[in-house]
Structure formats: C-alpha cells, structure tokens
Amino acid sequence: MKNVAFLLLLLLTVACKDSKDKTNGDTASEESITAQAIIDKAIDKACNGNCDRAEIAFTFRDKAYKSKRFDGEYELERITKDSVDVTRDQLSNFGFTRWVNDIKLELADTTALKLGNSVNSVHYFAQLPYGLNAPAVQKKLIGTDTVKGEPYYEIKVTFKKEGGGTDHDDEFMYWVHQDDFTVDYLAYSYETNGGGIRFREAYNPRRVEGIRFVDYNNYKTDDLSTPLSQLDDLFEENKLPLLSKIENENIEVKLLNQW
C-alpha cells in the first residue's frame, strides 16, 4: 500500500509539473511576442514577398502615382496635369526633383523637402504596412483590444529624428488583427498646420499580383488631447465624425526581375 501511495503521489507530481510547464510555456509564448514580430508578419501577409520588387501605379484624387522598388532602390512619382502643364514630382534614393513639361526645375531645399514629403505620404499610406520596417521607425506593442468584436494588437509607432523626416514628431497607432495580421485600423497625430488627429478604418481590401490594397474611411477628433489608443473606443461609440474617404483607383502592379 505504501508503494502504491508513493507511485500515485509521484504520478500526480509529474502531472502537475507537466501542466505547470505547459501553462508557463503558453504564457511565455504570449509574452514573448514583440511589435517587430507582429509588423513582420503583417508585412508578409500584405506583400506576399512582392513589395520589394514591384512597380505600382494608381490614381488618387485625380493625380497619377507610381512607385518602383527593386533591391533597395526606389522611385516615387506623382504626375499632375492641367490644361497647360504636366508636372512630374519624383522622389528617389538620390533626392527630389520636379519636372514641368520635361523641364527640370531648380528648387530651394525647403521647397524640395516639402514636396518630397507630400509625395512620400501618399505612397506610404497606399502601401501600408510596407514601410514600417524603415530604419527610422520605432515600434512598441502597447497591448491588445477588440474592435467590433475582433481581437487586435495595438502597435505604437514613432520616428527617430535622424532619418525620420520633417514630421518625425508625428505618432501613429496601428491595430493589427491577432489572427489575420491585417492592419484594419490606424490613427495618427501630427503637428503641422496647427496639428490634428485622424483615425482610419480600412475597407474594400483587394489583391493585385499578391499585394494587398485597401481604402479608408478617414475620421477626425477636434480634441487634440485624446490618446490615440482611445480612438477605437470613440469610433465604436460613433463619436468620430467622418472627414473624408481615401480611395486609390486604377491600381496596377508589375512584378520586376531587375531595375
């Protein structure tokens, strides 16, 4: 009887240890996930390995945009036409240039920087989450939350001063779906022109050559003290007025084998 009792005690001890180890393993796995790992997965899901070697063209608010990326080199373009002129703004590894009717203009550095930022901004939002692994990007996992009953990671993004551009003080928040790893919501605060806060809801997802694109409902709040992490709650409570729609049309993608 003593031997049987000892054997039962031993089995119970082992079982408890296995259960504890399993629980600790699950907890460690949950705790070990990082903002970097989440963003890596989101980019992988959105790009399908193609964003680094693609030529992408689309129309946004009657302007034509085109990006070309291959092996670390890039060109971002915006083409604007009116009744007289065709203006082509180009941002690349080598800087910014503006062409009007194929004539290159000489621009002040401050003007070139401002125009380059405006071109980059449209391409940045059109190709999210690609770009969130740029050297100046700083990512932090704030926590988890639910939006419309779906589970999300909340990722805060800030920028280093060096390499972060003139708007390096801007802050972003991304809601990444815990199962699908899609960026379904984002928010940001900015300082230019008196500052502001925006919240975007992604809709109309589609894939072209394996790359995922979305449009956005663009909401605002006039209370600039609102933490970005609270905007999803205000959105669900219908307390954010719709400001505009961000729609990219006529999307075309060409996969590249060389520059």
UniProtKB/TrEMBL annotation:
InterPro entries: DUF6503. It holds the Pfam family DUF6503. This is Deoxyribose-phosphate aldolase. It comes from Marixanthomonas spongiae.
